[in-house]
Amino acid sequence: MSKLFWPLVYWNRPDDYDELVAGEPIHPQVLEQLEIEGTSVCDLGAGTGRLTLLMAARARHVVAVDAVPALLDRLQRRARSAGLSNITVVRAGFVPLPLADDSVHLAVACSVFTHEASSGTERALHEAERIVEPGGQVAIIWPHHPEWFAARGYEHRSFEGNTVMHFRDVATARRLCELYYSPAAVRWVIEHASADVPFEVLGTKPPNDVCIKRVA
Predict the structure, then answer these.
(1) What is residue 3's predicted lDDT score, i.e. its pLDDT?
(2) d(CA 151, CA 140)
(3) What contacts 176, CB < 8 A, 6 or more positions away?
(4) How far apart are CA 178 and CA 102, in angstroms?
(5) What domains can be seen in the chain, in order of their start residue?
(6) Among residues 141, 129, 162, 120, which one has the least CA distance to residue 27?
(7) Any bridge partners for residue 75, and if so which?
(8) β-bridge mates for residue 139, sequence order
(9) pTM (two decimals)
């Protein structure tokens, strides 16, 4: 069930997923590690577009890949609202990727790939590297097990700060903590009456690190 949990959320509770990722700010220094300016980018597991839209504001073109229509619909609506016309949305999984060899400069995945062989990450990494041009980057933001990626030629970079998850309001924080975190997190929200909850209280690390590989 642990392997199915988040896919079930993506497909069946996209609004919850959207609220969760909206409060998970990616560390700005992580984004500074990515070669986005004026380049072509592929966002793997783009979801509702939290990373896609940030990159599209700077990139020449972004291909947003995800398998869940409800998430991609939200991404497209946000892109239109932001006046961004340089995003191509592709409904697909990670293996195989429907992109040509050497077709982007940067392939990036945020909190998507795991270290477990059964998840297909080995093949997915190969696909990500295949679509990146020589000299380009593959970046795994918020990796679950950075040592797994390091053993495959990735450099792990981590930054301090960015320690709090920002829910929309206290009621939202309490509801989502009840659904997705722990009784201890719920108690913390009630006691502090705060919509800003430390990642430590939630029992997870913040999105403050990235594994990067330069494609030969």
Answers:
(1) 53
(2) 14
(3) 16, 19, 20, 167
(4) 44
(5) 2-161+205-214 (3.40.50.150)
(6) 162
(7) none
(8) 108, 212
(9) 0.93
3-state helix, strand, coil in the chain (%, to 5): 40, 25, 35
Which whole-number Å values give the CA distances from 22 to 4, 18, 48, in the listed order? 22, 6, 9
| Structure-token pair, residue 176 | 């989502």
Roughly what angle, to the nearest 10 degrees, separates helices 2-12 and 14-22?
100
Which of 54, 61, 58, 60 minimizes the C-alpha distance to 78?
54
Structure tokens at 201: 């209280």
Phi, psi of 99 (to 5 degrees): -130, 150
Q: Which residues of the chain have pLDDT under 50?
A: 1-2, 117-119
Cβ 138 vs Cβ 175: under 8 Å: no
Nearest to 211 by CA among 151, 157, 145, 148: 157
Taking the C-alpha atoms of residue 186 and residue 160, their distance in angstroms, rounded to an integer, is 26
Asked if residues 109 and 128 have their Cβ atoms less than 8 Å apart, the reply is yes
User: Tokens at residue 138, please?
Assistant: 């593959």
Q: Classify residue 175 as left (phi > 0), alpha (psi -120 to 50) or beta.
A: alpha
Task: State which amino acid sits at residue 183.
Answer: P
pLDDT at 118: 42
Q: Report strand pairing: 155-158 vs 209-214.
A: antiparallel
- Backbone dihedral region for residue 192 (phi beyond 0: left; psi -120 to 50: alpha; all else: beta): alpha
**pLDDT score at 116:** 61
94 close to 129: Cβ distance less than 8 angstroms: no
pLDDT (0 to 100) of residue 72: 96
pLDDT score, position 166: 97
